[in-house]
Amino acid sequence: MFFYVRRETGVEPYVEERGMPELAMGAPVYARGLYGVICPVASRVPAARDRLAPLVVFVASERERQRIALQARPGQRIVVLPIAQEAEPLLPRQTAAPTRPAGTDDDTPPPLFELDAP
Fold first, then answer.
1. Above pLDDT 70, what percent of the chain?
2. Could you identify which of 7, 8, 24, 63 might form a hypothetical disulfide with 44, taking C-beta atoms 3.0 to 4.6 angstroms apart as the criterion?
3. pTM here?
4. Separation CA 7–CA 30 (nearest Å)
5. Distance from CA of residue 80 to its chain's centroid?
6. Integer Cα distance of 109 and 64 in angstroms
7. Residue 98: exposed, middle, or buried by beta-carbon count in 10 A (0-12, 13-18, 19+)?
């Protein structure tokens, strides 16, 4: 969304952390004033359709775009944002059976996990 707004406006956007009732509970996006709204609630769009009409509505899926388009004014600009793929976190790999290193007789418990090397 940030790339899209920068490309369209030439300025860095600012996004509020919380949705606003007057924007159908969507989060406002500012770029030289109120520019758009992220993920408004489709069932609340009819009450906010006049306020949303000049804004760009950002949604997460084509299905969400269709739901909002049914409730919004004709011609409402709705942009489906591509979902960024997150890198897989480094997770511990469970060993088949915890064993003690050879030659140890202490009461130290064996390791339960080994970390994969990056």
1. 70
2. 24
3. 0.68
4. 14
5. 12
6. 51
7. exposed
